[in-house]
C-alpha cells in the first residue's frame, strides 16, 4: 500500500466509498472510516498504521497545495 488510491481500495473491500467532492474532505473522512475499520478488528494494526501514514502524508500535501494556490491568487 503506497498511495491514497490504495487506501481507498482497502476501504472499498469493506463497502466503504468516500466521495465528498473535495479532496481534503475525502482524506479526512477516509481517516475516520479507516479508524472504525481497525477498531472493529477488520484490519491488522500494521495495515492500519501504513494506511494512516499514507493519509497523513496526503493531508499535508493537500494543505500545502491549497496554501500555495491561495498565495498565487493573492
UniProtKB/TrEMBL annotation:
It comes from the Bacteria. This is Uncharacterized protein YqgQ.
Amino acid at each position: 500500500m503506497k498511495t491514497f488510491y490504495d487506501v481507498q481500495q482497502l476501504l472499498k473491500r469493506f463497502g466503504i466509498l468516500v466521495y465528498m467532492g473535495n479532496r481534503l474532505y475525502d482524506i479526512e473522512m477516509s481517516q475516520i472510516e479507516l479508524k472504525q475499520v481497525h477498531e472493529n478488528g477488520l484490519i491488522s494494526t500494521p495495515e492500519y498504521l501504513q494506511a494512516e501514514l499514507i493519509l497523513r502524508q496526503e493531508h499535508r500535501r493537500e494543505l500545502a497545495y491549497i496554501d500555495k494556490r491561495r498565495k498565487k491568487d493573492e
